[in-house]
């Protein structure tokens, strides 16, 4: 198998931010074609570029463009990269400024002649600074036109130990801090540090929080500036003596401004050293551009999914989008998609979209988009079945009918995200007629723990993609090595809290909280589930939860045990199911009989199987596979097959090189296992 609470009230220090706001020079432009290029070429065959051309990255990981930007003095720079991406596949890059790296998405712009901006903020030194934009996937980077840098005036520092502190203490036991110490926040939700920042005049500012987090667990905080809040991650820095910065753009008023950083999880916040504030310009009064091409991307009997082309803004950032029906705001979302739920079946709705920037300037309304919900009970799997729940030992739909879901599992999102694009997911929903997509997010193996924000956002995106197509989505916490799920318990709490908070209004989810536990007892796995499930339930009381079983989700069979350990000592929760995984060329009658017996006593869901050996490779045993499928059909056991990718192994359904461009429909690019499982996924459902 794939393997006491204290409150310290200190007077807030009010210090003039700047005696006057100096005039800022216009941004300095550095054309990509004049930069150092590794594994790319200068071209001029797509209109709309500046200078003499643009850089076309080679389609491989590690291709880059590097330039040197100059700053008259140390400060904070706003760095803008102008790009075009004529594909529908995101081409992410790591942006390194003097070696300090942040990752940014460079999504499709609709055409190679459509240019857009991505902006980051970064500290820069006086003099020369190196900026390198490196492709991080095999698709390479987008076409890059130029890099612009706008260097702010030097920042003013506000020491955290001089601020107002709630549920925290001033300490000095970790080297590298500035001032006389730092604030160690209590490990509770709501602990905070509050600064008062004075600005001589109103203007935009960059706020930089210097922090250390000696754990491996992200300690996110809500940053409120005069009551307007944004959330920021404060990931592990490797040691309590290793200090880094997180920046937040903000609009400051003339005079006093309140800046509060509040812990949002039970781990509390990081150690905070100081806040640096730099005014970088006069108040922003310019509206964002109007969101273009609003469109309906999917409907169910109770929802309409919308998308639109991203707006742009002179600040480089769009804070959010508002969707209106008439004059009523029906959704506020951070990205260029939204799902409007709670609608009546067969009802028609007309919407417009606006964009807002960090200064709350709002664009004019977009063109209208009109869509009609589907008739009740018609159309997609979700439209037919609605909110699922466990009834007895079976999975039932909202009408109480026992059902079986059939679909596919993705491969690891760190390796084969390119196989999950618009075309492939359309094929899965419409050509394969799948009921369910399992979103397999590995935790280790270069997965979630390396970049929680990136991988959580990928899961958010795929949930929305499945929802737009009326498919169910299994959110798979794909823990594998180490096999003890408790190793990742804190990470799991953070991840599932965000997922449940954002998506609890959806009716098409299932949460798989431990992919394949191994090397531990059932009581250890049960303890993990009993701790994690209440965390999810406080935000999402309705979504079924799938619990992994011992010995790589074999109900213990692979360790010489059986289903009786789960039957006799189940998890202390309701609306849950237990998972079973098998690979037909390795797992014979003993495994098949165990699944059969278990399904009569406890709710079972086969979230992963293959027609090959347990390596996901080798020859196919379709005869044994069909025996399993016949049993699962008889006992209404839902399943997803491993895996929907073009991996080189025989268990990947597509031939190598199919992703990202396809074709994904039909059988021309399917391996033998792909042809076989597609036929079985396509078998008409008894909904």
UniProtKB/TrEMBL annotation:
> Which residues lie in Low complexity bias regions?
367-381
At the top level, the lineage of the source is Bacteria
- The Fibronectin type-III domain extends over 290-376
For this protein, the Enzyme Commission number is 3.2.1.4
Q: Where is the signal peptide?
A: 1-25
Q: Is Transcription included in the keywords of this UniProt record?
A: no
Species the sequence originates in: Nonomuraea guangzhouensis
* Record region (Disordered): 261-301, 352-381
Q: What is this protein called?
A: cellulase
Q: Where is the CBM6 domain?
A: 28-150, 156-278
Q: Which InterPro entries match?
A: CBM6 (IPR005084), FN3_dom (IPR003961), FN3_sf (IPR036116), Galactose-bd-like_sf (IPR008979), GH (IPR017853), Glyco_hydro_5 (IPR001547), Glyco_hydro_5_CS (IPR018087), Ig-like_fold (IPR013783)
Q: Which Pfam families does UniProt cross-reference here? A: CBM_6, Cellulase, fn3
The opening ranks of the lineage are: Bacteria, Bacillati, Actinomycetota, Actinomycetes, Streptosporangiales
Q: Which UniProt keywords apply?
A: Carbohydrate metabolism, Glycosidase, Hydrolase, Polysaccharide degradation, Signal
Which reaction is catalysed here? Endohydrolysis of (1->4)-beta-D-glucosidic linkages in cellulose, lichenin and cereal beta-D-glucans
